[in-house]
Design a protein that fits this description.
This protein is mainly alpha-helical. It has 2 domains: 26 residues, no CATH class; 116 residues, Up-down Bundle (3 helical TM bundles of succinate and fumarate reductases), CATH 1.20.1300. The chain is built from 5 helices and no strands. The chain is flat, with a radius of gyration of 20 Å.
Length: 147
Amino acid sequence: MRALIYFTVQYLDLVQFAAEQGRMKLTGRYHKGIGVVYRYLHMVSGIALFLYLLLNAVLLFLLVKGEHSFQTILSLLHSPFALVAVSLLLLVTLFHVFNGVRILFFDLGLWIEDQKDIALTVLIIVVILFIIHFLPMVEQVVGKILF
């Protein structure tokens, strides 16, 4: 908890420094555009990652309950549904990480005028990394469904 408070204070100090340098305006106005859409998607992806952590904690708890629950969860995790779910989790994680970097740059006053370009760059990076991961998984999912 102390680390979270420390990093939050450090982040707020950086934002204040950027505002003092004239790189950032702390107006509090509502803005329309792609940045707002990505901001809300960032919140949704954060909630999804948190729910995944809760599900992961439950699965880990069930794994240690005994041999039968271990085998049941193991068979569930090797199902095609689990492979698709892991791929979607990767997609959400990639978006959350790269959009978080975009938000950090914006808060520090870097690249403020190029929000559409940076949002498009984030989308392209996420899609490319997701495709690199997903192509080998397609063969596994299709193979398990058909055979």
